[in-house]
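To whoever picks this up:

The nightly regression suite flagged SDR family oxidoreductase as changed. Nothing in the input moved, so I suspect the structure step. Input below, exactly as stored in the fixture:
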Amino acid sequence: MSDRQVVIVTGASRGIGRSVAVAFAGRNAVPVLVARSREDLEETANLCREAGAPDVLVRPADLTDPREPERIAEEVVARLGRIDTLVNVAGDTKRGSFLDLTDEDHLSGFALKYHGAARLCRSCWPALEAARGAIVNVSGIGALTPEAEFTIGGPVNSALLNLSKALSRVAPDRVRVNSLCPGHIVTGRLQKRIDTVAREENLSDDEARETLRRRLGITHFGRPEDIAAAVVFLCSPEAGYVNGTNLTVDGGATPGL
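Regenerated output under the current build:
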């Protein structure tokens, strides 16, 4: 049985999920890395080891499979003896015109980011409760500000915020549950938006990046490490009185309260 904090991170193969895993690794935790691609997870595992993780568990999984979350929870407890923290990051939803998006697009968006997270919360709950642990569900600012081009991601993210708030009331003295909404973070997903602007307006990458930044009304794009630091805080003893809240980390992009 591990005597170190055991942290499950989904979407750990890249971007925010990878940075979250590395951040916990630097704090002597044992990261459990979950995503579809074993090859990409192994890259994250190497970064975790370089950051100081004594042990790393790589667990490739397709979280749209309803059976996988329970398998993951059982395997982690069997191998490491505990689960202290669950960070749900996995999920990528399709952007585009509402009239062009299909039923399959909508169902796929919910299948991973919402249902995958909900099932993992349920499957890990007994171990988290035993450890008096914490959950952070990483949503997105589309949950707070609806966009015409984000009619899948916005509702999925909103549902995840609602779920997080509800779960924070289940056993508040034993499992803290919070959510976090990243803003415009430098990841592959943001690069796709930059590429679209460049293509549609015949701009260079740098020009498209600057054009998008101005339209979003921010001084600069965030880094995955910015989100990772906030996640680590929410899971730490210093945040012991933080439960049922949503932390927005967006550089001021969200116009509402």
